[in-house]
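Good morning,

Attaching, inline, the backbone tokens for the sequence recovery test we're adding to the shared suite. The designed sequence is right after.
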């Protein structure tokens, strides 16, 4: 089993509470570094200034208001150092209950930690941090995959449009092949994600409603063809300019 250590930030205006949680975390060998601050703004400063420091878990005290915690988590997730952190709200032991947990998750938190702190629960929190990082990495990779697929779709649609009015699309086919090159070099995991993403995108596509349509008039068709031809000529000039540089 691989042993992973985590860095954490404790945010609590009560010095006794934050010192207690910091000590409890250090008692669990999974925690390598624990930094404590009194206010949410200080934690944001730490995240903004952490260019070479990786943070994994941020503990937020129940002593802050609902709105302040919500705003903090939203801002913290936008920082490079905070985008993959697990945000844990620390609550009093008598607040346990499904509705309480749901309320904290609505703030953007990934989980809750109830006082008094147990070693087992802190270990669970560290495991949750690893899960959050993996899920975030997957979402970023999937978003990048969606952009690539949309780019491929746009190129293919363009080629089909130009081909439909008799344009020579040979140079556009070369560009299309270059757009598709990364796909040919995907490893097994990336290729699997590629297929899953395509399936998700097609499943989410809006299907036109069935309607009685006799087709566009010849005048409209001519206008559409002329617009496509103008776009084709414009792109060809741009390609010529790039190649002449």
């Amino acid at each position: 089993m691989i042993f992973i250590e985590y860095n954490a930030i404790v945010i609590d205006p009560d010095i006794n509470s934050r010192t207690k949680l910091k000590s409890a975390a250090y008692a669990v060998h999974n925690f390598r570094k624990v930094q404590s601050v009194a206010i949410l703004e200080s934690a944001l400063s730490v995240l903004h200034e952490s260019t070479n420091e990786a943070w994994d878990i941020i503990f937020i005290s129940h002593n802050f208001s609902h709105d302040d915690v919500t705003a903090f988590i939203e801002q913290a997730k936008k920082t490079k150092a905070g985008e993959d952190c697990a945000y844990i709200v620390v609550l009093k032991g008598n607040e346990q209950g499904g509705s309480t947990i749901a309320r904290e998750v609505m703030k953007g938190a990934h989980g809750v930690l109830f006082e008094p702190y147990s070693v087992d629960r802190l270990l669970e929190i560290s495991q949750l941090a690893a899960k959050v990082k993996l899920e975030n990495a997957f979402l970023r990779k999937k978003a990048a995959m969606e952009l690539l697929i949309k780019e491929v779709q746009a190129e293919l649609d363009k080629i089909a449009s130009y081909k439909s009015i008799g344009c020579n699309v040979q140079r556009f086919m070369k560009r299309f092949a270059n757009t598709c090159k990364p796909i040919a070099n995907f490893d097994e995991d990336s290729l699997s994600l590629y297929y899953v993403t395509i399936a998700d995108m097609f499943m989410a596509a809006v299907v036109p409603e069935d309607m009685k349509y006799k087709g566009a008039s010849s005048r409209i068709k001519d206008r559409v063809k002329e617009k496509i031809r103008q776009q084709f000529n414009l792109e060809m000039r741009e390609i010529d300019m790039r190649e002449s540089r």
